[in-house]
Design brief:
The complex is a heterodimer of chains A (518) and B (328).
Chain A: E1 17-26, E2 29-39, E3 44-48, H1 55-62, E4 70-75, E5 78-79, H2 85-91, E6 93-96, H3 108-113, E7 119-120, E8 123-124, H4 126-138, H5 155-168, E9 173-177, H6 185-200, E10 204-208, H7 212-218, E11 221-226, E12 229-235, H8 241-249, H9 255-258, H10 264-267, E13 276-283, E14 287-294, E15 299-303, H11 310-317, E16 325-330, E17 333-335, H12 340-345, E18 348-351, H13 355-359, H14 366-378, H15 386-400, H16 416-428, E19 434-438, H17 446-461, E20 465-469, H18 473-479, E21 482-487, E22 490-496, H19 502-510
Parallel strand pairs in A: 3-10, 3-11, 6-9, 9-10, 15-20, 15-21, 18-19, 19-20
Antiparallel strand pairs in A: 1-2, 1-4, 4-5, 7-8, 11-12, 13-14, 13-16, 16-17, 21-22
Helix pairs in contact in A: 5-6, 8-19, 14-15, 14-16
Chain B: H1 5-24, H2 31-40, H3 42-56, H4 64-81, H5 86-110, H6 115-133, E1 138-139, H7 143-150, E2 152-154, E3 160-162, H8 163-181, H9 183-193, H10 195-200, H11 205-231, E4 233-234, H12 242-252, H13 264-284, H14 290-320
Antiparallel strand pairs in B: 1-4, 2-3
Helix pairs in contact in B: 1-13, 2-8, 2-13, 3-8, 3-9, 3-11, 3-12, 3-13, 4-5, 4-6, 4-11, 5-6, 5-11, 8-9, 9-11, 12-13, 12-14, 13-14
The chains are: A alpha/beta (518), B mainly alpha (328).
Chain lengths: 518, 328
């Protein structure tokens, strides 16, 4: 790492915030593993990484929302260990989340001064409070009626008000967690000006985002996390975009990914009869229209950065969100896809990324979780007998090697990899023709990882069509017949056959676009 | 502006209703009717002040009617049977009621239980306790009681502003100041907006929840004292179902049941509205008193529909004005 000081840095000797060896595990699975982050005075520092990289755990660990297992946090050389967001705030670390944590029903002035309003004889001095609010917001180029409810203003203004409150409460470090996700280009510009202004006064700003254009527009340095580990810390100006994406997505070739499969067997599969075809499928403001043809035995990979529209595409394919244009034909016949029920009837299956909240039912047993989708398809009037359920559960536990092989154990007690396998079993039990897997290897250990990839390959040789979303490019390359690259919620490239390789995907993701996401 | 709309509509409807009454019965314009309106609705008004705090904070308190019943029985027994001086009995019952409310608030916060359930339990508990004390209606003959009912400010035109009426006005005044002009009041609105955000902004959510329910029960105790003075008796079946009248008054006054919005003056108008309907029926003489309930029901329904409509309107205007205010 080059030690060249950022233009406004007071001194590089004592950093404003120094995090050393921060570790945190959840249920034995490390979410953060010895992470170091250094934030200097007057610096805007990007914290980057894909989903599950550990960004949010990092923020929670330094602001005391979760306790850390190991590591030190020092603020201007003095160790700090806040135990709550409130204590962190008092220590000088303020966080503004994507969801504005203010009160839309209160006035702007009340939001700025809640809990610390100027009073006289116990009564709030409304006029004084408004005068101070106006003065405070002037620094943020905000000239608004501070007596109006905050909810009357746009999200951008609400963000600025949240930042103003944090800064006024003597924050020295400002953590902005995806502040720009719901802002338009003009609003982002205003936010950036405020950020530069604050950095100029010596505040350190930790900026979490998934818009790389914004990273290059505003930040001085970048720290990249991946799978809970520190990948590296770089000067923004000295880090080419391609290299940055490689840092975020790249992965040491695992034994599973390195052995390339015989793709030739499936390449012959044509787009013709027997195929599921989505034509001009899309939803305004959600995912731009796309075409997708899936033949049995084919694996289509969806690649792209976080927020590029991969999961959104999967939700459209499964009818969770209903498309407002385009059509779906199966075996040449036009069919309706307005809900997940329709999708299940057509033989689709979907393993969502949020395994814990959208996938498993933690209190139910492995057996009950496995038969869930099959039972749903048969309807409540045709219950599976206990014997059938046992047979199905036993078959898949053996086939997928779910451990421990106990069908009556609550699924919440299994490891992530085995939960994932049980979820796969749930859909396989319905004998689907199309299975959509969103990050099937996220958050599971290396051994299970290899097994899931082996299963994916096996499934497609058995004639299933698969759509797999993954941030692990080597992994996608190892099994996909075709890779669709997404960016800003539209398909930007389709790679097939020989063209499916990591470099080509990285290039498609990094392809230059105008600065600032509009 | 949409914030004030429900209150403005309530005020307009009240003015219109009063005008209709006055046209039909000119006596409505006399101070006597106005003073009686205040006296007769004093206990309801005091309850409604507490309920306004609770509802704006996003909660509900179903126990207040039972606390009134308990208070009247407790006072009658304390003064008549146990020989405790009336003022000491008042202090004692206010203390018990406040503790009762603080406990409910602590349970709501501590165990993350819905206020509906906790205060429903509180309602049965307080009502049961008053039956335990006595099932009889006990008259109170203490000299203080007759002195209080005799005392009144003579208004020009023959009206008598009674002590209980003055107590209600004072409670509304103090409640309005506490709600609109203090930090505590701002925090009540904040809780109704979002408990999570309020906590993240450094407000102690637990203490405030306990304080809000304690305040509601304290005022229910005060209302019980007023009811006891007003009827000069204690009866375990008094004020049955009054919690619902109270909620109706608050909602008709323009306070949103979802919390976070409302004004004390609206609640005052809501209470007077119910009193007005009752008075009209008394004047008419031929109508059954159940018409009060029917008209209240219709009004409640109309106001909730109206609130939903203005909320939807407000939301649309926010969406339309996304760029508003972000002037560089």
């Amino acid at each position: 790492m080059s030690p060249s000081p950022s233009p406004t840095a007071a001194t590089a000797a004592t950093p404003l915030l120094a995090v050393r060896g921060l570790s945190k595990s959840f249920a034995g699975f490390p979410a953060l593993d010895g992470v170091d982050v250094t934030l200097r005075h007057g610096e805007i520092h990007a914290l980057l990484g894909e989903n599950g990289a550990g960004k949010s755990t990092f923020i929670k660990a330094i602001t005391g929302v979760v306790t850390r297992d190991a590591g030190t946090v020092t603020l201007d050389g003095a160790p700090v260990a806040p135990r709550s967001a409130d204590e962190a705030l008092k220590a000088g670390i303020a966080t503004v989340y994507q969801e504005v944590n203010l009160l839309p029903n209160l006035t702007v002035a009340q939001n700025l001064f809640l809990g610390r309003q100027p009073t006289r004889f116990g009564l709030v001095r409304e006029v004084e409070m408004r005068r101070r609010s106006i003065a405070l917001l002037r620094d943020f180029d905000l000239d608004i009626d501070v007596g109006a409810p905050l909810g009357d203003y746009s999200v951008a203004v609400q963000h600025l008000v949240a930042i103003a409150r944090a800064v006024d409460m003597s924050a020295r470090i400002l953590i902005l967690d995806e502040p720009t996700a719901s802002l338009d280009a003009h609003e982002v510009e205003i936010l950036f000006r405020v950020m530069r202004n604050l950095a100029g006064k010596g505040l350190g700003i930790l900026f979490v985002t998934h818009f790389l254009d914004q990273v290059y527009a505003i930040t001085d340095r970048i720290t990249v996390l991946r799978n809970g580990r520190l990948v590296g810390e770089r000067e923004t100006a000295a880090l080419p975009r391609m290299e940055l994406i490689r840092m975020m997505l790249g992965r040491e070739l695992s034994e599973a990914a390195s052995e390339h499969p015989a793709k030739a067997a499936t390449e012959a599969a044509p787009d013709a009869g027997g195929a599921i075809r989505f034509e001009g499928f899309g939803k305004a403001g959600y995912v731009a229209p796309f075409d997708l043809a899936l033949a049995s035995g084919q694996v289509v990979g969806l690649a792209g950065l976080l927020g590029s529209g991969r999961t959104e595409t999967a939700r459209l394919l499964f009818g969770v969100e209903s498309a407002d244009h385009g059509r779906l034909t199966i075996d040449g016949e036009a069919v309706r896809l307005a809900s997940p029920r329709d999708a299940i009837r057509h033989g689709f299956g979907y393993c969502p990324e949020e395994r814990k909240t959208e996938g498993i039912v933690a209190e139910l047993t492995v057996r009950e979780n496995i038969v869930l989708a099959l039972q749903a398809r048969r309807g409540a009037l045709h219950p599976l007998s206990r014997r059938e359920q046992d047979a199905i559960a036993q078959r898949f536990i053996t086939m997928l090697d779910i451990r421990p092989p106990d069908p009556e154990r609550p699924i919440g007690l299994l490891s992530g990899g085995n939960q994932q396998k049980a979820l796969l079993a749930r859909w396989l039990a319905t004998e689907p023709r199309l299975l959509i897997l969103d990050e099937p290897t996220r958050g599971i250990d290396v051994g299970a990882h290899a097994e899931i990839i082996r299963l994916i390959r096996q499934l497609c040789t058995e004639g299933l069509a698969l759509v797999v979303i993954s941030s692990e490019l080597e992994e996608i390359v190892s099994y996909a017949d075709r890779v669709i690259v997404m960016r800003d919620r539209r398909q930007t490239a389709v790679l097939e056959g020989e063209a499916v390789n990591v470099t080509a995907i990285l290039q498609a993701i990094a392809a230059d676009t105008p600065p600032l996401a509009a | 502006m949409t914030r004030y709309l429900p209150v403005i509509v309530t005020a307009a409807v009240f003015a219109l209703g009063y005008a209709i009454c006055a046209l039909q019965f000119p006596a409505f314009l006399s101070t006597r009717v106005i003073a009686n309106l205040l006296t007769d609705n004093a206990f309801l008004g005091i309850l409604a002040v507490g309920m306004t705090f609770v509802i704006i904070s996003g909660g509900i308190d179903l126990s207040v009617g039972s606390v009134v019943g308990f208070t009247t029985v407790f006072l009658a027994l304390a003064i008549e049977t146990w020989g405790i001086p009336p003022l000491a009995a008042f202090m004692l019952v206010l203390f018990v009621a406040t503790l009762f409310g603080a406990t409910m608030g602590a349970l709501i916060q501590g165990f993350d239980m819905p206020p509906f359930i906790v205060t429903l339990a509180g309602m049965f508990l307080a009502r049961g306790a008053s039956f335990l004390l006595s099932t009889e209606s006990i008259p109170v003959t203490a000299p203080l009681y007759s002195a209080v009912s005799d005392f009144a400010f003579r208004l020009p035109g023959g009206g008598r502003l009674s002590v209980v009426g003055m107590v209600m006005l004072a409670v509304f005044f103090a409640g309005g100041i506490a709600l609109h002009l203090t930090r505590f009041g701002a925090n009540v609105y904040a809780l109704g907006g979002s408990r999570v955000s309020t906590g993240l902004m450094g407000i102690t959510v637990g203490r405030h929840t306990a304080a809000i329910y304690a305040l509601s029960s304290f005022l229910a105790g005060l209302s019980g004292i007023v009811f006891s003075l007003y009827t000069s008796s204690g009866y375990s079946l008094s004020a049955v179902g009054v919690e619902l009248d109270t909620i109706a008054a608050v909602v008709i006054g323009g306070t949103l049941l979802t919390g976070g919005h409302g004004f004390m003056i609206g609640t005052f108008l809501g209470v007077l509205m119910q009193g007005l309907i009752q008075t009209y029926i008394n004047f008419d003489g031929t109508l059954s008193s159940w018409w009060t309930k029917i008209v209240t029901g219709v009004l409640l329904f109309a106001f909730i529909a109206f609130q939903q409509a203005t909320l939807a309107l407000a939301r649309r205007s926010v969406r339309g004005a996304t760029a508003k205010g972000a002037t560089p």
